[in-house]
Amino acid sequence: xxxxxxxxxxxxxxxxxxxxxxxxxxxxxxxxxxxxxxxxxxxxxxxxxxxxxxxxxxxxxxxxxxxxxxxxxxxxxxxxxxxxxxxxxxxxxxxxxxxxxxxxxxxxxxxxxxxxxxxxxxxxxxxxxxxxxxxxxxxxxxxxxxxxxxxxxxxxxxxxxxxxxxxxxxxxxxxxxxxxxxxxxxxxxxxxxxxxxxxxxxxxxxxxxxxxxxxxxxxxxxxxxxxxxxxxxxx
Amino acid sequence: xxxxxxxxxxxxxxxxxxxxxxxxxxxxxxxxxxxxxxxxxxxxxxxxxxxxxxxxxxxxxxxxxxxxxxxxxxxxxxxxxxx
Lengths: 235, 83
Hints:
The complex is a heterodimer of chains A (235) and B (83). By secondary structure, chain A is an alpha/beta fold. Helices cover 22% and strands 25% of the residues of chain A. Chain A starts with a strand and ends in a 6-residue tail after the last helix. Helices cover 34% and strands 31% of the residues of chain B.
């Protein structure tokens, strides 16, 4: 089993992602430089958080045209697992691999804190180890996490069970008070219609050990590992 | 040579948090007549082009592919001859 973590200029959660996979979950992982155009041989690809290209123009807008991205698009189209975390999520929407867009937080502040997330769909490769409705404690750290999609797009997300995580209270109730950034329908994570590409604003790689305040990020990583162990998609 | 002035703005109806905060600041400074503030980006491009139509075609392409995100933004532009 081998995973790849893409490094764009300005990625800064790449080492945490590598650490979570390599040191905590004990699986092989390699960095993939953004100029790479061949990403064969991986069981899954991670687009880590950060501030690619200084967030110039729009978050993720320039990284989306890095050479590696056309390969990521092909990899995803062939069924490969792709997880975008925070800035990685923003890049995936810019690339058209996920619908919608991430706008400036409605409070305008950069927010760095633990959030509670309700698992709305546990039938994805990224949440298969979770119970339906389980509450995960995973931190966010972003200035542009305000997920937006138009009404028609939102109805499709709901219909196709593409909303994977929603911001919620500690007891799992989805309230506007629990929404840190103004995201439509409290959306924290969505997947594509096929389910093999997910974007999430919270950082699972930042909470894989109890000493960090939570190890709930492991649920995301374990889900991916379990899915791969079942013999699905190595590209 | 041509000068193209491109304006990228959030679509109508979307909450413009920066515009709202700026509006509040203006009001607190006493500019009570301010009804609305919308923030956007101004992009200034100098470019080559055979004629106005050719420039417009390229600028449309730039706007759609990179400069604006059609999910949340609109863009408009002005094209001038640069002497």
